[in-house]
Amino acid sequence: MTDSSEFKMDYNYLGRTGLQVSNLCLGTMTFGQSSFQGGLPGQCDEELSHQILNRYVELGGNFIDTADIYSLGNSESIIGNWLKQQQRDKYILATKVFFWRVNPDINRQGLTRRHIVQSIEESLERLQTDYVDLYQMHCWDNATPIRETLLTFNDLIRCGKIRHAGCSNVTGWQLQQIVDLNRELNLNPFISLQQQYSLATRYDEFESFNVCKLNGIAVLPWSALKGGALSGKYKRGERPVAGRIGWVAQDEAQRGNQTFPSWDKLEGSDKIWNTIWKLEEIGKAKGKSVAQVAIRWLLQRDIVSSVIIGVRNLKQLNDNAVASSGWKLTKEEMQELNDVSMPEIPYPYEQIWRQNDYKNNKYLPSYFVDDMTD
Ligand SMILES: NC(=O)c1ccc[n+]([C@@H]2O[C@H](COP(=O)([O-])OP(=O)(O)OC[C@H]3O[C@@H](n4cnc5c(N)ncnc54)[C@H](OP(=O)(O)O)[C@@H]3O)[C@@H](O)[C@H]2O)c1
């Protein structure tokens, strides 16, 4: 893609808010020096990060996702330095709170009222703005009563520091508890769920996405390419030495976890390779890249408002952007991708689907998560 005047991203409503966001959100975990021991590869300095932001806007994007923890605050600072040269109200800006590893302090983490209030003040300072559009709890906190967290988020909405609240990395019952308690206490509802979701990770179709569907909560998938594995650039049997998938974390706890999948786990999975081969086949037939087809599959899931893309250069951004607009996967192509990537369905989901969809003799997760192929 060279001439951006011919190309503009499509827009969707962000859940039930009435806010319109580009269907690709720019993830900024790659901005600034990595916060991980040994340094995650593929980080962008400030100059390249600003080029990526400028190009994203040129392509029609208006939705930017960051977090206090990304590059230990530097991702927010880099965005802030860019934002001050922009018209602030053109952008839907999202950040998160939970983890904080600068000047470790036992009370500088999690979702206590104390930590949330301190964190939003610091995020706003780094972002050089007086509000964020979407403030997300980055993970469920087992230690803090969820009531305290929800009341605090609501107070931040009331005093104008955040426009909306959302969450990330929660289970189905936790999300339902958030929905119910917000309703019971007459607080502003959470509007979005940011969850790892791709053709390689579909577990949330069993539970959380049904809560989203029933309550109009926007799903914002992260790791749409499973850290780059679904870009088609890796070949089975050829261990990568570069890039995110080739990275081996120094910290053992970080090795091969769900956020940073290890090559060994990926390489051993027939399902992932069969999925990549299917993506290649469909991509070839349609003249699209593997990454574009993988992202397009997410965009055609009816619960998804915007897919968070992560890039480390302009080439990757230009590639991924093509998924946004101007073409679609057919119903048959969606079905082929659903089938090849189908996770094993655990009890009791399998039994419930089988019993409830006996008429169609079809007991797939897509019984709940529909393909929007109109
Ligand atoms: N809520 C959460 O807990 C959470 C967790 C993680 C991320 N996120 C958000 O989601 C965003 C995206 O996550 P992610 O980085 O894991 O996404 P991803 O799309 O799965 O992986 C991005 C990486 O894949 C490679 N890549 C991307 N496009 C490519 C292309 N077209 N061709 C070849 N390689 C390509 C690049 O790494 P290499 O070039 O190094 O291979 C890039 O850094 C983050 O920036 C962040 O905003 C949220």
TrEMBL record:
The keyword ATP-binding does not apply. The keyword Transcription regulation does not apply. Keywords: Oxidoreductase. GO terms for cellular component: cytosol. One of its GO terms (molecular function) is oxidoreductase activity. CDD domains: AKR_AKR9C1. Transmembrane segments: none annotated. Residues 24-340 form the NADP-dependent oxidoreductase domain. This is NADP-dependent oxidoreductase domain-containing protein. InterPro entries: AKR_Detox_Biosynth, NAD(P)_OxRdtase_dom_sf, NADP_OxRdtase_dom. It comes from the Eukaryota. Belongs to the aldo/keto reductase family. Aldo/keto reductase 2 subfamily.
